[in-house]
Automatic annotation (TrEMBL):
<dbReference type="GO" id="GO:0004581">
    <property type="term" value="F:dolichyl-phosphate beta-glucosyltransferase activity"/>
</dbReference>
<keyword id="KW-0256">Endoplasmic reticulum</keyword>
<dbReference type="InterPro" id="IPR029044">
    <property type="entry name" value="Nucleotide-diphossugar_trans"/>
</dbReference>
<keyword id="KW-0808">Transferase</keyword>
<dbReference type="InterPro" id="IPR001173">
    <property type="entry name" value="Glyco_trans_2-like"/>
</dbReference>
<dbReference type="GO" id="GO:0005789">
    <property type="term" value="C:endoplasmic reticulum membrane"/>
</dbReference>
<dbReference type="InterPro" id="IPR035518">
    <property type="entry name" value="DPG_synthase"/>
</dbReference>
<comment type="pathway">
    <text>Protein modification; protein glycosylation.</text>
</comment>
<feature type="domain" description="Glycosyltransferase 2-like">
    <location>
        <begin position="66"/>
        <end position="244"/>
    </location>
</feature>
<dbReference type="Pfam" id="PF00535">
    <property type="entry name" value="Glycos_transf_2"/>
</dbReference>
<keyword id="KW-0328">Glycosyltransferase</keyword>
<dbReference type="GO" id="GO:0006487">
    <property type="term" value="P:protein N-linked glycosylation"/>
</dbReference>
<protein>
    <recommendedName>
        <fullName>dolichyl-phosphate beta-glucosyltransferase</fullName>
        <ecNumber>2.4.1.117</ecNumber>
    </recommendedName>
</protein>
<keyword id="KW-0735">Signal-anchor</keyword>
<comment type="similarity">
    <text>Belongs to the glycosyltransferase 2 family.</text>
</comment>
<keyword id="KW-1133">Transmembrane helix</keyword>
<keyword id="KW-0472">Membrane</keyword>
Length: 342
């Protein structure tokens, strides 16, 4: 009788575990499939019916800076972010001269609102050479949108910036100053070897903008549950990618073109934890990474929900298992990626 009751108690647990494993495996299969054959994206010119050809990040750069802004249902916040960014970039061009060229790539991640219409209005105003709208055929998540934008960037340096404008755009100069300190000419080589290397592919380096200096104030303002979830997430990040960066999730990051090309071409996660995957990939490829504090403001309209936390944990688990435990996900070499892109 006891064994019968035990079986009745365990059966729902076993079934639930099987369902979770099946769901995770389904996610992994979808990620692997789209890594090989990504869904369509279109670079749109609102004033033309002719298709605009997409460049590739493995081409030589034709701009000094590319700014990639992923956007999903951001019609209410996108305009103020673009206004701030474009005003800063124009002031900087006036200061530095015509050699400072730039582009902003807005990646519409299958929005259901007027995000694309807002972006298109800026393309009309500033021209498609300056403001570009890349439309993803279906919503896949922030990580996927950032990846697709990076892979068509034309800049020597590539900036990721969230559409909510929570970070002051002028803090780009802080990121640039720190990036210049850590640049190295090739994988695993220290900065001191710059002068002697024959590598001409371009420098490597990544800077993560950080809100870690605001952590104490945030802990006071958050609920106990929110703090517990935050601490749990940080533990999982440490478990997967170590402690090189305290704040992996701030939406303000700067990459050299070469670093962006190999990191985003290897990236598989599509939603919340792609930042952690990039950090892990950079560590494996010995690409230098540093962190710098930026000005940050809490903005209304956050898309993080309780289910988002569960998805983050799942993505971190997938990273750990697929890269480190099973070794199923391979990290492709720069040569392989260049051949694939050509």
């Amino acid at each position: 009788m006891f064994s019968k009751w035990l079986l009745m108690l365990l059966l729902p647990v076993v079934l639930a575990a099987v369902a979770v494993i099946y769901k995770i495996w389904d996610m992994v299969s979808a990620l692997s499939t789209e890594f090989i054959g990504p869904i369509p994206c279109t670079l749109e010119d609102p004033d033309s019916t002719t298709a605009v050809s997409c460049p590739t990040i493995f081409d030589a750069p034709t701009k000094a800076l590319s700014c990639i802004i992923p956007a999903y249902n951001e019609e209410g916040r996108l305009s103020s972010t673009l206004d701030e960014a474009l005003a800063y970039l124009q002031r900087r061009r006036d200061r530095q001269g015509p050699q400072f060229t730039y582009e902003i790539i807005i990646v519409d991640d299958g929005s259901k609102d007027a995000t694309a219409r807002v972006a298109a209005s800026y393309t009309r105003k500033y021209g498609i050479d300056t403001v570009r709208l890349l439309r993803v055929s279906a919503n896949r998540g922030k990580g996927h949108a950032v990846k697709r934008g990076m892979l068509v960037a034309r800049g020597e340096y590539c900036l990721l910036m969230d559409a909510d404008g929570a970070t002051r755009f002028s803090d780009l100069e802080k990121l640039e100053a720190e990036l210049d300190k850590i640049l190295q000419p090739s994988f695993g080589r220290p900065p001191a070897s710059r002068a002697t290397t024959g590598d001409t592919q371009g420098p490597l380096g990544v800077v993560y903008g950080s809100r870690a200096h605001l952590a104490k104030d945030a802990v006071v303002k958050r609920t106990r549950l929110r703090n517990l979830l935050t601490q749990g997430f940080h533990f999982l990040v440490y478990f997967v990618a170590g402690t090189r960066v305290k704040d992996t999730q701030c939406g303000f990051k700067l990459f050299t073109r070469r670093a962006a090309a190999i990191l985003f071409s290897n990236m598989r996660l599509q939603r919340w934890c792609f930042d952690v995957e990039l950090l892990y990939l950079a560590d494996q490829l010995q690409i230098p990474v540093c962190e710098v504090c930026v000005n940050w403001t809490e903005m209304p309209g956050s898309k993080i929900r309780a289910t988002s936390v569960l998805l983050m944990a799942t993505e971190l688990l997938i990273l750990k298992v697929m890269y480190q435990v099973l070794g199923i996900w391979a990290i492709h070499s720069e040569l392989t990626l260049r051949k694939k892109a050509s």
